[in-house]
Every structure is written in C-alpha cells, then in structure tokens.
Amino acid sequence: MSRSNVRRVAVPVTSAAVVAGMMLVGSPAGAAPTTTSYKNSCQASAVLTVHKVADTSMTVDAPATVAPGETFTYRIQPGGASYPNSESGATTTNVSRLKVDYEIPANSTFVSAAVVGTGTNLDGAAPSVLRVDDTGNANGSGNVLRLSGSNQTIANGPSSSTNSEGGIRAPKLKKDLNGNGTSGDSWFRLPAVDVTVVAGAPGVITPKVRTAGNAGNYNNDMNYYSFLPRATFLGGTQWAPTRCTPRDAQGSALNAGAGPLATITVSDPGPVIVDTTTTLNVPGTAKTGTAVDLTATVAPAGATGTVQFKDGTNNIGGAVPVNNGTATLNHTFTTNGAHNITAVYSGDATNRTSTSAASNVQVTTDPVIVDTTTTLNVPATAKTGTAVDLTATVAPAGATGTVQFKDGTNNIGGAIAVNNGTATLNHTFTTTGAHSITAVYSGDATNRPSTSAASAVDVSVNVVDTTTTLNVPGTAKTGTAVDLTATVAPAGATGTVQFKDGTDNIGGAIAVNNGTATLNHTFTANGAHSITAVYSGAEGFATSTSAAGTVDVSTDPVIVDTTTTLNVPGTAKTGTAVDLTATVAPSDATGTVQFKDGTDNIGGAIAVNNGTATLNHTFTANGAHSITAVYSGDATNRTSTSAASTVDVSTDPVIVDTTTTLNVPGTAKTGTAVDLTATVAPSDATGTVQFKDGTDNMGGAIAVNNGTATLNHTFTTDGTHNITAVYSGDATNRTSTSAAANVEVSTDVVVADTTTTMNVPGEATTGDQVQLFALVKDGDNNPAVGGTVQFTINGSNVGGAISLVDGGAKLDHTFAASGAYNVGAVYSGSATFHGSTAQASSVNVTDPAPVELDTVTTLTAPATATKGDAVNLSATVKTQAGDAVTTGTVTFMDGATALGTAVDVVDGQATLSHAFALTGDRHITAVYSGASGMKESTSAASTVTVSGGGTNPGGTGSLGQLGSIFGS
Predict the structure, then answer these.
(1) Which of 24, 346, 382, 748 has the fewest beta carbons under 10 Å from its own?
(2) What does the pLDDT look like over 834-878, one tens digit per residue?
(3) Res. 86 pLDDT band, cuts 50 70 90
(4) Which secondary structure element, helix H or strand E, spans residue 491, and what is its range?
(5) Alpha-carbon dihedral of residues 724, 725, 726, 728, nearest 10 degrees?
(6) Which interval of the chain is the signal sequence (predicted)?
(7) What's the distance, CA 882 to chain centroid?
(8) How many angstroms separate the CA atoms of 558 and 965, rounded?
(9) What is the 3-state secondary structure (H, E, C) of 650-683?
C-alpha cells in the first residue's frame, strides 16, 4: 500500500459533549456523581505504530461517608468516545473488543459487581463484568474487575485476538445523538458498573482504574483500556489493536491518572453501647453480726460505673465502684431470716444498666455447717523452671479457710488462703516426670473439709530461646590476631559456638563460658570478611545464629574518623580536685588526650584506656573555664576534638539538694537484729543519718559512707514501727528526710535467708531498651515472696523499688551513654525472707551504627525533543526532610540504558546536556547513587517524545486523528 493511499483510522476518545449528554443510570449512592478528567496515553499498532495522548474522563457515584464494616455500592462509568466514519478514501467499519479494567479498591472487601444498563450505540456481545487475575482469567481471588463482552479482548485474556471482531462492539452510526442522519464521527459510551463492597478500617476507599504492576507500563497487554479498530480500503481489511494507560490532566506524568477517581471516607461511628449482665455471688448462709462479702460481677469485663446492692427493695449501704469487672460489699446482717439480695449495675458511657438475679442469704445466730466440694484445675504439662498456676475452687463460693496443695503425699509450699471461693498457688516444678496433684480444703466455721480428685501434670525440660550477639573489630590487619567474641543470652547457656567466615568454619567450636565464647583469630587474606557465630544449643537452650558482622582486612591499617566526647562537672570549688573525662569512639582507640583550659594545656597528655581518659584536676582560679579534650589519634584512628564545656569555679561551695531513700524489712522478729539502710543521693554526700522510730531517735547518728548509712537494730516491742531516716547534710549537700516505711514486729516471725542473682545482657546499645532481671530464692531454691528489688548502676539507684512477682523483678532500662557499667540489685526482704544483695554484673554499652537518611530524587525533563539537538535533563536530590543533598552522583537512564556518565550532585542538583539519537517516546529516570549517610533513590519516570526534526510521527490532537496507522 502506497503512502498516498493510506486511510487514517481513529481510536475512541472521550468527548465532553458526549459526557454531558449521557448521564449515569440511577443514583445508588444518593450523592452527586464525581467526574475526574485525565488523559489516555495510547499506542495503536498497524502498518505503522502511532502514539497519542487524548482527553478522557471517568464518572463515579459513591457515598461520601460509610462506616467500618458497612456494605455499600458505588457506580463507575467511562465517558463517551468517538471515531471518524471515513477519511481519505478508507472506511472505518467499527471498533470492537472494547475492555475497561478497574482495580478492586484497597481497604474494602469485594462482594459483587453488576453492569447497569446497556450503554449507548453498542452491539456485539452483551456487556458483562468479571473478577479476573493479572492474566485476565476469571478468578474469584483476582484484584481486577473487567467490563467486557464475554472477556473477548485484544490481549490479557483467555479469548484474545488482534485481527478478528469480538466482544463489545461500537458500530458505525447512521444517525447522530439527536436522530439526524450523519456522515461524521460515530459516538458511543460503555455502560456503568455497580460495585458492592464492605468497608474496612477507618480511613478512605479510593476507586481507581487498573495500573498496578505491569498494567502501569506504556503499551502493555495489561493496560486498563484496550480495543480493536477495523477499517476497509480497496476491498481489504486493516486492524489497529490499541492499548491505553492514564496520564495526569496535563499529560506529563505517566500513570498519574491512576489516582483516586473518588474518595469515600470510612469514619469511626463512635462508641458502641452494649448490653451487660450482672451476676451476684453471695454466701448461702450468714451469721447475725458477722460480716460477709456480697460480690457482683459485670460483663463485659471492661465495664465501669457502680453497683447498688439491695435487700429486697432497700439499698444496702451506698453504691460500690466497679473495678476490673467486679464490685464487692462487706456487709453485716443484723436480723435473722431469709434476705433476698440483688445487685443493680448503673451502666456507663458504653455499657447499659443491668440487674442480677436475686439470691437468698439465710441469716441465723448459729452457723450452719454445710458440705463442700473442692475442684482442682492444673495444666496438663509444664516445663522445669517455669512457674504455673495450680488452682482449687471450693463450693459453696462463700467458703473461707485454706487449701493445701500436694504432689503425691508431699505438701507443695504452705497452705493458701481461699479468696472468693478459689485458692491459687504459683508453683515451679524442679523435676521432670508425671506429678499427681491434689488440693485439700481445711474447712471453716460453716463449711466442712474436702479433697479434690487427683490431676496429673507432665513436667519436661524447659527449652528457652537464645540470642547470640557477635562482637568483632570493624578492621583488622593481615597476619595480626584479633578477638572474635560471641555473647549468648540467657547467661546460663552452655554448649559451643562455631565462628564462620561466610560459609566456612573458622577453626573448631569454642565452649561457652559465663555466656561468652571468644576466638583469637588471624586473618590471612585481605578483603571484607562476613563473620557469623552459630550457637550449638544445649539441654534447655535452643540454637541461635548471630547477625553477620563485617571485618575489613588489609595489609595496611584502615584509618577511621573518631569522635571525642567531654564530661566535666558544671561547677567546682577552688582547690578541690574534680574529674575531667573524655570518651573516644570507636572504643578500641588508643593514643592520648590533652585536656585544655581555653588554649592552655591542663597538665600532660592522658593515655586512652578502654575508650576513655580521665584527668583529676584542681582549679586554682575562680571564674568560667572553657574546657576541651584533644584526642591525638593512633595508627588506625584520626584525631578529633570535643565540643567545649564550661566549669564555673568559685571559692564558696555549691549547695545542692539531696534525696534520702530508706530500705527496711517489711517484718522483723522481736529480739532479732535487722538492717535499716538509708541511701543518700548524690552518692558523694558525707555527713550522718539519724534513724527514727516515730519521733524517737534509734541510737546515735550513723556516718554516711559511699552514699549509704546502715543501722543494725533490734526491736524489743511487738507492733507496727514507723521508720524514717533524716540526713544531716554537709558543706555542699542540703538536708533531706526519707519517706516513712513500716516494720511489722512480732515474736513469732520466722525469716529465711535469701540469695539474689542477676541476669543482664553482656552487650547493649545506647538508646535501645534492655531488660535487667533479678531472681530471689531461699536456701531450698524456692522463690521468695513479698518485698522489693532496687536495681543499681555503678552504685547509684536506677528506677524505683520493684515488687517481686514469682520471686523475680524486671526493670526496662535504656543506657544514654556508651561505656562499661556495673549493674547491681538489692532485695529488701519481707515478712518471711531476709534481704540480700546480688553480685554485680557488667554491661558493655556501645553507640549504634550511624543511620542513613532516605532521599527523594525528582526529575525535570522536556516533554519533547528533536533528534540530534541537545536538551537539559535535571535532577533534584533532597532528604525526606527537604534538605539538599551535597554528595554522590546521578545517572540519567533511558529505560535500562545509561545516558552518558554519572553527574556529580552539587547543592542538591545534577544536570546532563544530552542529544537523543533515537526518535519516539523515551522513558527517562534519574538514579541517585547514594553516599555516606544517604540512601540511594530513583525518580519517577518522565516521557520525552523525540521527533526526527520534521513532522512529529506521533501527531498531535485527539486520538481521533491517529495518522497513518494502516500504511506508510
């Protein structure tokens, strides 16, 4: 076919006139429809390949607001479209295989979809809607809703063709929309689709056309809009399969038209008012003049408000607040007879009122003795060393007294008091095997004793998870040995650690000792070595593998940057020595630190040891002294200087506030000495502490030593003793008095000795929270009951006193500075257990690795260019905070091909002058390389349409003027 005989056939496009004249059918949402205008970027393939951008639109009728979980329907419909009936001797026969794909919107659950109406000026297969997957096949789990005729398309479906009619067809119009004869363009419009979904969580639901994955790529079989134009010329047939993907309204950004076509707000409907049930628990009998508990349980458990107990129609006392779902009134009946008790719940903001069923309490002067049943509830299995609950339930529920739990014939601990009909023992099994457990109820004044049926607990070894942490130097020198250290938590783990260089073992397995395993290793090859540590596991401990650590090995040492941090007191007294401390990072730095007062050296250089250097210095002149620390550097570490810190020096001392904390046992035995300890902060305080029992002094004042003062005291009288500690103050510290603490003194208290042990991580990172554990046991290895644990760091209290739970106490702590810390724990003691102090444990705290910032790269490129003529491609690189990036390079890409060499980023900008050698649409991106402290990033793609210097082969205007797509 010669160029002069080519017939140009049009691809359908949206027309504002058609949109205005073709309204949506009905209005399912009851809100004004929203019409979104954007552009289609299409490619038609025939004898020639033609690229076109044209206006289009989509109309959505949806509710503005729905509630979470609400089922609702929205309607979506494309705008009208057209094609020329004839041009240049060729005749357009029709457009068929019309298909539009919509995405099922996020934050919703698909229910159904249905076609509304038949559209305008359409024939062929009846329009239908299917749920399809990425391949275009019908799939109930697919993410796409397809409007088509029997899924007959040009591509991306089970019934596809680019050279035969099928599916929905738009025939040539014999008349225009007003019924008049026409030889102009043929107009049509696809029908609407009703989509029914269930709303998700509060937020938004945004209907969109299909652009996910490859569907957003230009001229892709998965494009949301495709169709097949057909034309006749000289008795022959020509086909032009066409694929379209959206652009924004300006036509500059590919896929920008994939944004929301409407926004449906999913709003929180506010609190839901629910029904409640109130259950009453009262004793069946009571004795006149003896108090009993009346308890109401309100469901759901989170209910607040109050409960009013009633005897018949009369209120019993005032309303009782609901706490953790229950309200209890301790009540004394004064008259004999049957009392009809109810409980009336008041309700609250989210819970309705409710009234319990009535229960009778038979009140007599003499108690009624009743039979009881004891039911045992224990776990079927347990692990050694892990506490489990053994629970006995005694009926009737008002029973008091105690329950003795037994393992076979042996008692498990002491008898447990019955409370609200239950007694629970938190017990740790120490031996494996089957344990036969029973519960023996003691009875009380109105309830006979009873014994539960036996229940078996199968106890096995407790296997705990482990974590393995690797500590290796960042650099090493070939032929020089370095330590590779693995720390296994928890600290009691045994077994071995195998160090690995990549997948190769480094030597043999190393035994774990006190939670660590260390290999002294000499690297023989230069390069980056990826080191891991694999813990073997042991009885009771699971295996674990550390994160990889990299050691850069070279013949010559690697010189790294350092930071020097200065720690000095804010004030000092003339003639009194104070410590000036510098901390050098990384912590393995050696060399010296020279402290300076202004520009003058303070003494000589101080050697760096374990990353720190300390000078004990006496200022001789009053005033503000500007102190700095200058690190000398060493073979592998560069020099650095700290920020300046000011020390205000004066002749008169600086008086500071103090706090005095008192630690006393909760109980003591008459005639047996106990320790009363006061801790004064700051820890360098001197002076004395006077302990007091009420207003009476207890002996003489006790000198403060290393921040503490202890009085060994013997109480001679039973009863409650209210103890305080009064600190005297000294030249630089003000007086202070502790909070009062009670000691219950009696003749019959038996107090057991205890041992406090600690479990803390060997390594920690500044800013990251770690857990400090303390465990308190008696001489029989049973957990201590009652009392508190006070944790200390380097001798100073940290956090408040923590009550024991199952013999243990836990403190979540975050270290603010790097260095070595000694962590201790002091148990206060309780009614039956003496206090004890744990042996201190070391924690090595290091600073975290530097954080790389995310970057954003934005590309600026012209929309068009001429082959061979240079144009500027510019990239702007910023951090997410909006700061300009000043290092790294940008490579400009045409698809997968680099354009020239990388361009340096200067003040956040990189520009490349480039002349395109190929015509057509060029899809350009800018790739930022990243740099120290900066992550890589890639811009969104921009399309540059390159022409050959004459007529643009893509043409301009609407898709109704595609140009010679059927010949050349």
Answers:
(1) 748
(2) 899 999 899 999 988 777 889 999 999 999 999 989 999 999 999
(3) confident
(4) none
(5) 170
(6) 1-31
(7) 25
(8) 64
(9) ECCCCCECCEEEEECCCEEECCCEEEEEEEEECC
Residue that is written with structure tokens 């390949």 in the block: 49
Judge whether 114 and 75 are in contact, CB under 8 Å.
Answer: no
Cis peptide before 271 (omega within 30 of 0): no
Report the percent of the chain where pLDDT is more than 90.
60
Give the closest residue to 191 by CA, choosing from 300, 275, 278, 115.
115
Q: What is the 3-state secondary structure (H, E, C) of 378-408?
A: CCCEEECCCCEEEEEEEECCCCCCEEEEEEC
**pLDDT the model gives residue 968:** 24
Q: What phi and psi values does residue 79 have, to the nearest 5 degrees? A: -70, 175
- Position 47 scores a pLDDT of 67
Report the distance separating Cα 798 and Cα 90, nearest Å. Answer: 90
Q: Which amino acid is at 659?
A: T
450 DSSP β-pair partners: 441
DSSP state of 477: E
In the numeric block, the tokens 């060399």 are attached to 591
Q: Tell me the per-residue pLDDT of 894-929, one tens digit each, with 9 for 90 and over.
A: 988 888 899 999 999 999 999 988 888 899 999 999
pLDDT in tens, 520-579: 999 999 999 999 999 998 877 889 999 999 998 988 766 889 999 999 998 888 888 999
Q: Any idea how long the chain is?
A: 968
- Buried b / exposed e along 894-929 (16+ C-beta atoms within 10 A): beeeebeebbebeebbbebebebeebbbbebbbbbb
- On whether the CB atoms of residues 378 and 390 are closer than 8 A, the answer is yes
Q: Say how far apart CA 46 and CA 240 lie, in whole Å.
A: 5
Cα–Cα distance measured from residue 619 to residue 98, given in angstroms and rounded to the nearest whole number? 90
Three-state secondary-structure class, residue 904 = strand
Nearest to 930 by CA among 896, 879, 892: 879
CB burial readout 706-715, b (16+ within 10 A) else e: ebbbebebeb
Task: With a cut of 80, say whether residue 173 has pLDDT above it.
Answer: no
Distance of CA 324 to the CA centre of its chain: 28
Say whether the peptide bond before residue 490 is cis (omega within 30 degrees of 0).
yes
Strands 90-103 and 225-233: antiparallel
Sheet holding 81-83, edge to edge: 13-14, 81-83, 186-188
Identify the H or E element spanning 328. strand 326-332
Tell me the two tokens of residue 24: 């949506």
CA angle, 710 then 713 then 714, to 5°:
165
> What is the torsional sign of CA 92, 93, 94, 96?
negative
Contact status, residue 158 vs residue 143, Cβ threshold 8 Å: no
Distance CA 615, CA 276 (A): 70
Residue 672 contacts by C-beta under 8 Å, 6 or more apart in sequence? 714, 751
